[in-house]
């Protein structure tokens, strides 16, 4: 049937390469049954995995070419080519499932995932190896609903994380604001203390100047008192000292009254 399909040279070449790889896969799995050594079986499975990856790539390329030529082909030809593509996808999926069986037999439970894309299935951890194009409408709806539920759950978790982040950010902002206000009050108090220190320094300087002035006045008064005391002492010790008489306030009073009395007596006589 595939040989009777009307294909362009590009599609025919890709289709031929895919079929060659399928034959190589079939022969490889047949030889795998004859291999008894587990190490050789693992190596053979690795080679078959490379072939399956190549088939995946070629099927994706076949699908791209098919879409490019879809407008130039009649509807019935497009249908036949799409059916052939689905047939190749199912055949590849059968080899993937067969590979999983051999891997389980070897005791390796890990199944490599194939990103088939563009109509090629992606093997999962369960036994269902189906592609979207091979699934029924109900299965597609169920798969879509499941994906939407998972997406909603992820969104809810993300919202919770965002809310927690916002709460932490708000608390941090409040703490920073409180610390900023506290720093502002500390700066104001430091300014007040600095102003008080400057004012106190000025007062100390003024008091120092006033004390110095008072000391000078007291010293001058002390000198005056000492001078007066010295004059009084000298007067007492030597009352006839002419130098003392010449000092205003300390010299004895002049005999003005006696002279006036003598003049009056002479006048009347």
Automatic annotation (TrEMBL):
<keyword id="KW-0175">Coiled coil</keyword>
<keyword id="KW-1133">Transmembrane helix</keyword>
<feature type="coiled-coil region">
    <location>
        <begin position="45"/>
        <end position="98"/>
    </location>
</feature>
<feature type="domain" description="T-SNARE coiled-coil homology">
    <location>
        <begin position="145"/>
        <end position="207"/>
    </location>
</feature>
<dbReference type="GO" id="GO:0031201">
    <property type="term" value="C:SNARE complex"/>
</dbReference>
<keyword id="KW-0812">Transmembrane</keyword>
<dbReference type="GO" id="GO:0000149">
    <property type="term" value="F:SNARE binding"/>
</dbReference>
<comment type="similarity">
    <text>Belongs to the novel plant SNARE family.</text>
</comment>
<feature type="transmembrane region" description="Helical">
    <location>
        <begin position="217"/>
        <end position="237"/>
    </location>
</feature>
<dbReference type="GO" id="GO:0031902">
    <property type="term" value="C:late endosome membrane"/>
</dbReference>
<keyword id="KW-0653">Protein transport</keyword>
<dbReference type="InterPro" id="IPR056173">
    <property type="entry name" value="Sec20_C"/>
</dbReference>
<dbReference type="Pfam" id="PF03908">
    <property type="entry name" value="Sec20"/>
</dbReference>
<keyword id="KW-0472">Membrane</keyword>
<dbReference type="InterPro" id="IPR044766">
    <property type="entry name" value="NPSN/SNAP25-like_N_SNARE"/>
</dbReference>
<dbReference type="GO" id="GO:0012507">
    <property type="term" value="C:ER to Golgi transport vesicle membrane"/>
</dbReference>
<protein>
    <recommendedName>
        <fullName>t-SNARE coiled-coil homology domain-containing protein</fullName>
    </recommendedName>
</protein>
<dbReference type="InterPro" id="IPR000727">
    <property type="entry name" value="T_SNARE_dom"/>
</dbReference>
<keyword id="KW-0813">Transport</keyword>
<dbReference type="GO" id="GO:0015031">
    <property type="term" value="P:protein transport"/>
</dbReference>
<dbReference type="GO" id="GO:0006906">
    <property type="term" value="P:vesicle fusion"/>
</dbReference>
<dbReference type="GO" id="GO:0005794">
    <property type="term" value="C:Golgi apparatus"/>
</dbReference>
<dbReference type="GO" id="GO:0005484">
    <property type="term" value="F:SNAP receptor activity"/>
</dbReference>
<dbReference type="GO" id="GO:0005789">
    <property type="term" value="C:endoplasmic reticulum membrane"/>
</dbReference>
